[in-house]
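Dear support,

We are seeing what looks like truncated structure output for some complexes. This example has two components. We would appreciate it if you could run it in full and send us the complete token output so we can diff it against ours.
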Amino acid sequence: MHASRTIVATDPTLTAVITELGPLLAFLTPELASRIQFGWTITIHIIFAALSVGLAPFLVYFTVQEVRTGENRYARLRKFWTKIFAVGFIMGTVTGIPMGFMFGTNFAAFSTTAGEMIGGPLSFEAKMAFMLEAVFLGVLLFGRERVSDGFYALSSFLVALGAWLSAFWILVVNSWMQTPRGYEVVMEDGVPIAQLTDPMAAFFNPRFPWMYVHMQNAAIISVTLVIAGIAAYFVWKNRESKVWRTALQVTVVVLLVSSAFQAAHGDMYGRHVAETQPHKFAAMEAHYETGQADLHLIAIPTDLEAITDPRADNLYTISIPQLASFLASGGDPTAEVTGLNDFEYESPPVAWVFWSFRIMVGLGFWFIGLGAWGTYRLWRGGLYDDERYLQALMLSSPLGFVALITGWYVAEIGRQPWIIQDVLTTADGVSPPLSSTEATLTLVAFVIGYLLLFGVFLYVLKRILDEEADRHTVGIEEDDRPDTPGVIADD
Amino acid sequence: MTNILSDSAYVVESLPELWFGLVMISLGVYLLLDGFDFGLGMLFVEADETERERMLAAFGPLWKANEVWLVLFGTVLFAGFPAVYANILSRHYLLVFAILLALGLRGLGSKLREEHDDDQWVRFWDACFVVGSTTAPFLLGVFVASWVLGEPSALAVAPIVVGITVVALSIVLGAAFLGIKTRGTLRERVVRRGRAAIAVYVGLFALTAVVLFVRYPELQPVLQSIPTAAMVLATLVFAMLGVGTTSNGYYHGAFLSAAGLAAVFVLFISTLLYPAVDPAAGLSITDAVVSPLSLNLTAVFAVVFLPIIGFYFVFLYTLFSGPASPETSYSSH
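Here is the complete output from our reference environment:
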């Protein structure tokens, strides 16, 4: 038999049956269907992944405060958010497991080329993070009566650590695809293979620290907004709720600090992108002609076409002249920014990158405003009586995730046409034998399946909220019996 | 340390073969551990509501951790033999997604039935749980056999026979697990089913060997070898031990016998594959393995973390040992 790394063929019998049955399904190319499928699944999965990452430090905080002060309000918060953490975690695994396999099913050529660089980190993630999370989540959910208080608190810390380690290795992989380092491309049987030459350079590539800090903080902001929104809802229903007043106090301050930090960090991150991925930076500003670039603070499309194809001449913009040049170069307002027309390869889908970036940044400033407003109210009093503020928090509670998802679109769609920057294009990374019909079939299944999953999640979330609301009306909330210090109260 | 991260030689000469061993061990541990869950899910079908709650109390704290072994298997294969990972997953594209769908149904079914106190709702998610628990081991068996036999299509006789064999093995495992996790009439019935499943499994194992012998002439030397004879014998011994121990009420013995059956099965599959890792693509271990630096590094992580993972599982299974009762479980919230 001839040894070969080239991908042979898909299952011929099944493919024949499917192709016979479904010419109607073959309206997307395998590449586009695979990209949409991966993009769609990550859009849903990242909500749960970020929920785990962002909620983890809050759970540790509530648990530690509970053990330290013995106050019932922390126990209540810990229990409430552990329930949501558990549902989110299960949703995260159900939606996440297919993604690892999609590297092989849909992007087989990419997996062959990049296997040596990304297979290791993915296996480290499974060994270090997944195992830790899965095992100690079992303790967190089922082991309350089987372990000591201290060990129970330790379990919550270990699950949190697992969530953060998991994100660490995933972002090692993703940042390597943005700024690949520590490898050498060799040809084996006519297939390019990226061979590992320097693990530290590969793992801690230039993008990695930017991405890790920005992503983890984005997860914290998103979860802070969710907690703040829910706390606002319960405080709005019952001004006297000690439990939810506590949650509100903590989150408005965290929101201000984390979103202000995110803005400052994002500004520097943008400069790094301009240096390492100039075509992405140009797409973020819809900058086609090489030359000085203005920063469009606010862009309003003047016609429908501007939405799908934003350009300087079809947008009504409020811009700061030369600021994009200034930012990209780190201080020179006249610096030349390469336009999209001057790259040797095709542009990414500019509209997605341009608008996603604006949504992310716009929301980011709104979060700073919300945090400042709340912190001011906390300081000057009246936080719990400001109806308008409480309503703003409630309406804003899902917006952190919107900013986080659009941020991912900027990073991932902005990298196109590359799957590994300057090494492999996405078109070359797709599984060669994959048919349009197969890819479209699974895409449709994923769209329907993940929508149902997300619906189920919202339903379960609503039930948890209703249960908490019932506690309010029967007054369990104000049960102020002295708690035994150092003991975690039980259900 | 310098030579561990050497880019010119594997830290141990046979590291590629050892890594192949780790791939198969991960697969084996996964089939064993999730076999408990699949079998439990199939035996679920004839249980009444109280029994179902007891079964789910045994299942609840463990299944998530068990399922992680599938991810571990996938990533260990990916890290060592990326071209094989890419080949077998894209070749069996629809089959892979069918497996994931079955696993998803199983996981959601068990969780969501608790979320709403309505007969129709509970029945619907119970059905998902049972269907997922039955199709997942079948499709996994089909997938593993297609891979190992180098079958370009999963719709062939041998993969389907192996799929059914894995279903029978999962029932044996599920019954053995419930044998130590439950008491009373539920245990008696489940163990009876387990004994029947052992007989069926032995028959299917023999059928698999015959089908392979007839349809894959290139496997005849392996099938006639002494190791294969030893594995057939071991299967018979574990089967008899399994039947004998349950008759005497020694359920831990039955549990170990079932684990023995699963271990022999995966060993058998591994000998059919070795020294190839992807027969359909003509890839041997040496062809497909990653370069020394990459594998050395991954192996160092494995040496450090596999014992820790082993410790986690001993801890988890010890913490949740003994008969499961729904009263102390999380579902009471």
